[in-house]
Amino acid sequence: MSNNKIILSNALLIFGGIAGFFFLTKIIGLDDVSELRLLNFVFVLWGINRAIKTNIKVNQESSYINNFSIGIGTSVLAVGFTIVGLIFYVGFIDSGLIAVLENTSFWIQNLSLPLIVFALAIEGVASSVICSFILMQYYKNYKVTDASIA
Question: Domain spans of the chain?
Answer without folding.
Answer: 3-139
